[in-house]
Amino acid sequence: MVGDWRITVSVTGGNSTNAYGVISSSGLALFFDSDGDTIELPTINGASSFSGSMISYGPPGLNVGSDTVSAKGNVNSPTSITGTFTAASPNPSGTFSIGPYSGLSPVVTLSGAMVGQIASEAVILDLNFSPSGANSSMTFTGSNGFNCDVSGTFFQEGGDVSTLNIFDVSMTFSGTGCPTPTTSAISGIGFESASDYFYGKQNGTYLYADMLDPAGAFAMEIFQQGVAPAGAASKLTPAH
Question: Are 132 and 170 found together in one domain?
Fold first, then answer.
């Protein structure tokens, strides 16, 4: 079940939400929607069924926290996963369905100046990427132009550089004015896409990281400098 997936979450008697993400080789299943919400499913490791906690994290900066519900699902085929989630009253219950998503192909090794922005956050990060290690693995360093520095790695899983669009991600923030108070390494997973999910920019190369920050999960979009996202603030706006 390792790969890039799209999940549709439907609330009983309510709306449906689409989110995009990855199931990693460790079974970690993370997805984000266009508002920057993150959904974490129970571990999916190829067994015919799974169960556990389904956690939804609100976008950073909105101080809405997270919600945990009970979920169970079935791996119906290599291209179909379905399940249900149940919350304690008065919170809603519902269903979810997961199908394959075609990310960027072939996978691209980023190099040079890039821009990073966390969904729903005003701060812009100037980043510099370098190839590192096997296949399309990369390292990066950067800052917000003030007192916050960041560094990290995107380690490509598997041995097929052209098709396996899954990265194990680690990033560490230091200094003041950072988009997170966490100073230890934050882990997550990522993938590349030709589409911009947050700001409606033209098709191109976009690298995404969905990070399980202890202070609150966040999704980061990384793109080439010069492609300014509509509605994004100047990097001269420090994080709150």
Answer: yes
